[in-house]
Amino acid sequence: MSRTWASRFFFSVVAVMALATLMSGTACTRWGKAGAIPPTLTPLSAIYVNPTSGSDSSGNGTQMKPYKTLTKAVVVLAMSKSLSPNGVTITLSNGHYTAGNGEKFPIVIPTAVSIVGMNFGTGVRNGTFIDGFGQDTIFEQLVDAPERSAYTTLEVAPGITVSMSGLYVGASKLKLPSSRAAYWSLDVLGTLNAGLSNFGSGTLSKAPSVSGVLVAGGTLNCASCEIQGNDFGIGAISVTVPVSTAYPSATPSTSPSSTPTAEPSLPSVTLTHSGGDSTIAAKVVDLITDASIDVSVSGEAFERAKYAFEDSFPPIVNIPFHGTVDFGGGILGSPGSNNFIGARVSEISIVRRNETISALDDTWNPSQQGANPSGKYRKMHTFGAGASGKNVTIRGNARGSTVSVGPAVVPTPTPSAYPSTTPSSTP
Q: pLDDT per residue over 164-177, tens digit each?
């Protein structure tokens, strides 16, 4: 199964480099160190931003005097010497957050924070729309990719946990410098807990190398997220992340940086449906991994792609074991209820050996590969190597790979081997 588009995405990368100077050069400006910020006198707990009425020069980040840009809020957050033990929340008023309005892309989130938008569900015109793109130098350096080959809008820094809700994130005026460049609206190098957000929204481009979310060695937990892309909706790969004090923190260190070490960072993707839409819509593949990723998905609607799921991403790091993929009834606890209907080629496509996927209690293309007219399997069935069809395709040489479909197994209570010695209560 040819994947020329996947090869193009990886820019012919063949190795990962652990770089001691990861944050040097142009990347430094993207961490928000544009100038001295007066020390915070009280613990910082809230920052307000309004792209219409706010000001980065005269505002102070309060609700009455908000900043104008998220970029400014991130600078203040990164340089604050005192953060609330209960966390910091950046509240973004509805409006367009663009380069023309003062944003500097990509916006890298370097410190744990919650980012909350307004008017979600009303679309990019009336909601909180972070709209722009810039060179993803951190990812380029992580995988030793050529300069000006990777672009993004938002980025969660390695080792950082960020929460987001109520946001639209994309690039409405996307123009990449060459056909070898790739764009994703969000790069998750750390941990992102997101809900009721749309990633890839408003991105008007016919370029094939335009995608929704890249999870590069990070962790993505998304509850009721809408994700859009051309190449892929979500792409998850293992990378090697340098571990050093080079990453900025809320309290800048005056001690010299330690010698960086490097270790593989294995991503995980968890998608759930708690309310609102929970969909992935891409042109090629909705969710693609390099087979090293733990994946747990429930209540998701996979739309319009050639493939809903595939494990064919070329690996960046050689991981000797597979991740666990659970679309229902597996050991990760997914309850299923996914909608696998509409893939132009096949819903689940497996190309690697010894990949085991559980996909119980889901809905499939009706009257295909044994599914009934309602898109259900009345009995559990396990597809093996050589399976081919609209619902499941497993390459013939992917020996040992399986996809199990059908109703979830109802656990049978195990009787106790020993009778209870507790006397019954007196009536």
A: 999 999 999 999 99
